[in-house]
Design a protein that fits this description.
about 350 residues, alpha/beta, Rossmann fold, Alpha-Beta Plaits, 4-stranded antiparallel beta sheet, 12 helices, about 30% strand, elongated, binds adenosine-5'-triphosphate, MetN_ABC, membrane, translocase, transport
């Protein structure tokens, strides 16, 4: 659906040349929710502006929906932008227009006749959960409702790709959740491809199928969300993952645990997907004559499944402890003995 090949974007400033996007290769599939995460200045906004043709790459090729957008003329670019629309952190609504008029705006520009516009606006109001609010003004709406207007407006001309530029960063956690739920539901209902940029791992965790991590203009890591959460490779990815999970505890914490629980064995279990739903602990306790103590635990849920870690102190007869560890292994749970006392 979207393919970037060796794309770079350089800006010439008074301070010299800035490489905002540096040799990025990406393939985004039709119908997926793809997240791009990075800290401020990583190049996310520039990348997303390249995807809708607002910026042209200094080098490289960008193909969206079969269309090479780096070389198309202004007129074709206008048509292209109807197929690739965008929502923004601060909504970018027209404050002097009602909600219905905001949503109708891109339809007017596309030359849709008035009666059709009206019907389409009603349809969109229903889709985003703003029935009956068409005559309100944006200033009368909450942040979440304003973003719903932004989403309805972005969907007006039936785009195939929705770009989301920090779409929930100005919202409180509860409202963020409701907007993310709405994005998932339109992704499923309309088969829309969604590309979002964010600095919040919660957003990636909650709705993305795949993620790319950006640092200094480069994509430094990319993959399925569950995989990246389980086995982050780069230091920056580990920092993002640790925002929401303590599965990558620093050595010190483990050492502390070993000091705190000197008896028996400390065993770290790593659960992925279905294994999170198995009653492994209760089976362990029933089957073996051991003391089992939960020392630390954490399960996170991503769109593609759950994952998490559990650290157990298992104490008792040496053979029983070994058998118990073998049993956990046999349940397809990745197991690591932290201390060998
Ligand atoms: N039009 C421009 N002219 C000059 N430099 C720019 C321009 N746009 C972006 N940059 C620079 O490119 C780099 C990447 O910026 P970009 O806004 O893409 O990052 P970001 O990850 O989106 O960060 P933020 O979330 O803070 O916007 C920064 O150093 C920025 O100053």
């Amino acid at each position: 659906m979207i393919s970037l090949k060796e794309v770079s974007k350089r800006f010439i400033t008074k301070q010299g040349e800035i490489v905002a996007v540096d040799n990025v290769n990406l393939d985004i599939q039709r119908g997926e929710i793809f997240g791009i995460i990075g800290y401020s200045g990583a190049g996310k906004s520039t990348l997303i502006r390249l995807l809708n043709g607002l910026e042209k790459p200094s080098v490289g090729q960008i193909v969206v929906n079969g269309q090479e957008i780096t070389s198309i003329n202004e007129e074709k670019l206008r048509g292209f932008r109807q197929k690739v629309s965008m929502i923004f952190q601060h909504f970018n609504l027209l404050w002097s227009r009602t909600v219905a008029e905001n949503i109708a705006f891109p339809l007017e520009i596309a030359g849709v006749p008035k009666d059709k516009r009206k019907a389409r606006v009603e349809e969109l109001l229903n889709l985003v959960g703003l029935e009956g609010r068409g005559d309100s003004y944006p200033s009368q709406l909450s942040g979440g409702q304003k973003q719903r207007v932004g989403i309805a407006r972005a969907l007006a001309n039936g785009p195939e790709v929705l770009l989301c530029d920090e779409a929930t960063s100005a919202l409180d956690p509860e409202t963020t959740d409701s907007i993310l739920d709405l994005l998932v539901s339109i992704n499923e209902k309309l088969g829309l491809t969604i590309v979002l940029i964010t600095h919040e791992m919660q957003v990636i965790q909650k709705i993305c199928n795949r993620v790319a991590v950006m640092e200094n203009g480069q994509v430094v890591e990319e993959g399925d969300v569950l995989e990246v959460f389980q086995k982050p490779q780069q230091a920056i990815t580990k920092r993002f993952v640790s925002q929401i999970s303590d599965s990558n505890q620093p050595v010190q914490t483990i050492q502390k645990l070993v000091q705190l629980y000197p008896n028996g064995k400390l065993v770290k279990l790593v659960f992925v997907g279905e294994t999170t739903e198995q009653p492994i602990l209760s089976r362990l306790i029933k089957q073996f004559d051991l003391e089992v103590n939960i020392v630390q635990g954490n399960i996170s849920h991503t769109k593609s499944g759950a994952f998490g870690t559990l650290i157990l102190q298992i104490d008792g007869n040496d053979q029983a402890v070994e058998d118990a560890i073998q049993f956990i292994h046999s349940q397809k749970v990745n197991t690591e003995v932290i201390n060998n006392d």
